[in-house]
Design goal:
mainly alpha, DUF4271, DUF4271 domain-containing protein, 9 helices, transmembrane, globular
């Protein structure tokens, strides 16, 4: 029987990150109990979007916590994708995760800043704020759904490609579903400005992720 070579790397840092994410979730639940429950209810209803869309400025603290959870969760998943597809022998876990976390944080914060600047330049701050609130809410929800699957990938004794491909496909389905809900909720506005909406999707929703993919996959 032919022996299979297996590479073992330490998951200590990843365990710390997972514990940190869970701690942030507990803090969010403790400090913003009603808002957190309304946010989780998005699995079954859109109550959170209807109520909180009118008071999104009052949700600054909660949104910051959810943004940090999102960045940590997605960084973990990107780390697992890199380790599985590009460099299974990677041993410098701390350095690699720090690079991914820093790059993704910069990417997200820069994207939010550019979106805010564009909204201000075209004098559509209120409309853009409502749209971005809904988009970021679904983005945070998808990252929460992704977390348990990422934890499974980290500690599973054997990682098969079909599981990761299924996760990636599931993420795309979730993004498409969220986009569909956003379009449906803002159907009247989008129909009057369909050209600008398509331009926005290409410039700020598709191109940045293509660039991020190229940066990650380029050795």
């Amino acid at each position: 029987m032919e022996a299979l070579e297996r590479y073992s790397t330490s998951n200590d840092l990843l365990t710390i990150i997972i514990v940190l994410i869970l701690l942030l979730l507990v803090i969010s639940r403790k400090l913003f109990q009603q808002r957190f429950e309304d946010f989780i209810s998005l699995f079954s209803s859109g109550k959170y979007l209807v109520i909180k869309n009118r008071e999104h400025k009052a949700l600054f603290g909660f949104n910051v916590l959810m943004l940090l959870i999102h960045i940590l969760s997605v960084s973990l998943f990107l780390f697992m994708l890199y380790r599985f597809f590009l460099n299974p022998r990677e041993t410098e876990t701390e350095v690699l995760f720090l690079r991914i976390f820093t790059a993704y944080s910069f990417f997200i914060l820069l994207k939010i800043t550019v979106e805010k600047i564009i909204a201000n330049v075209f004098d559509i701050d209120e409309t853009a704020d409502n749209y971005l609130f809904i988009k970021h809410t679904y983005r945070n929800l998808i990252s929460l759904i992704l977390l348990p699957f990422t934890i499974f990938l980290i500690y599973a004794p054997h990682q098969s490609a079909w599981i990761i491909y299924s996760l990636v496909i599931g993420i795309f389905i979730g993004i498409i579903f969220a986009l569909f809900r956003i379009i449906k909720k803002n159907q009247g506005l989008i129909s009057r400005n369909w050209f600008y909406f398509i331009l926005y999707l290409c410039a700020l929703e598709i191109t940045p992720y293509v660039i991020l993919y190229k940066l990650i996959t380029t050795r």
